[in-house]
Automatic annotation (TrEMBL):
Domain RNA polymerase sigma-70 region residue range list: 7-72
Record-linked InterPro entries: ECF_Sigma-70_Domain, NTF2-like_dom_sf, RNA_pol_sigma70_r2, RNA_pol_sigma70_r4_t2, RNA_pol_sigma_r2, RNA_pol_sigma_r3/r4-like, WH-like_DNA-bd_sf
RNA polymerase sigma factor 70 region 4 type domain mapped to chain residues: 104-151
Record's protein name: RNA polymerase sigma-70 factor (ECF subfamily)
Length: 285
């Protein structure tokens, strides 16, 4: 077995799994690098399904990374949002963008326990059997099933039913919302939002952002109109974490990525990432 060739083939899938668990591009890349060091010592002849083996390995390492950094995230100033990964044609992140899960699901995963998030990714993204999930989490298959079930219930409670066409629905909603904001039409903005809509803004203490989620359609509408008054705005559509989004530049500097999630009631959540550290890898030119 050519270890390097096999690893390269499955690297995008490993990156996607590690990212869904950690919510961080940097951490996912570190996880996959650690997985390579471990994989290089594995006897390839003993591995029947390298893709599944590597996916599980990356997930286990990602779980360890999240456990290590949990206290740091708990002291983070304001909401902690997953890092935006913008589609730029790189094959490295092709799986993340093609799975279409979007930043909304990645955010909900960060609100779960690390074990619940890892169990969900292993089962629903990588299609790993429950006995193997139990091995990763050092628990029983029955407990692993329960972790996946709890994760699914939490995701459904926050995002509703996840089905096909989410990317297209979110893209249409983002376009209509942008048009309403450009026209300064408060009523039109409110009509596009669900009554219990929430706006999350992550500045990381390095850029102006709301330290608490903004709740309600009316408050969000006025917040959006206030932001639209900033000078030199340039807004560009983009695929962010496999979902619909836009890049916002102010006077030539990328300051924000925006994504959203729609349900039958309208735009249910908006996610503004403004922390410069989380935007550093994005080429907005």
């Amino acid at each position: 077995m050519d270890h390097a060739a096999v690893f390269a083939e499955h690297r995008p899938r490993m990156l996607a799994a590690a990212f869904h668990i950690t919510g961080s591009r940097h951490d996912a890349e570190d996880v996959v690098q650690d997985a390579w060091l471990a994989w290089a010592r594995v006897d390839g002849a003993s591995v029947r399904e390298p893709g599944a083996f590597l996916g599980v390995m990356a997930s286990r390492l990602a779980l360890n990374a999240v456990r290590t950094q949990r206290r740091r995230r708990e002291s983070y100033p304001g909401p902690w949002l997953p890092e935006p990964v913008v589609e730029d044609g790189s094959p490295e992140w092709a799986v993340l963008h093609s799975d279409g899960l979007g930043q909304a699901l990645d955010f909900v995963l960060t609100t779960l326990t690390p074990e619940q998030a890892t169990a969900y990714v292993l089962r629903k993204v990588l299609d790993v059997a429950y006995d193997e999930i139990a091995g990763v989490l050092e628990t029983s298959p029955a407990a692993a099933r329960q972790l996946v079930s709890r994760a699914q219930r939490a995701i459904a409670a926050d995002l509703g039913a996840l089905g096909g066409g989410q990317l297209e629905r979110d893209a249409r909603a983002l376009e209509r919302l942008g048009a309403a904001v450009a026209e300064g039409d408060v009523e039109a903005i409110v009509a596009l939002l669900s009554p219990d809509a929430t706006l999350y803004s992550d500045g990381g203490g390095r850029r102006t952002a709301a330290l608490r989620p903004i709740l309600g359609a009316e408050k969000i509408a006025r917040t959006l109109l206030g932001l639209a008054r900033n000078a030199g705005l340039r807004i560009t559509p983009a695929l962010v974490n496999g979902g619909a989004g836009v890049l916002v530049q102010e006077l030539g500097t990328l300051t924000t990525t925006i994504t959203l999630h729609t349900t039958d009631e309208g735009v249910h959540a908006l996610y503004f990432v403004r922390n410069p550290e989380k935007l550093a890898s994005i080429d907005a030119s």
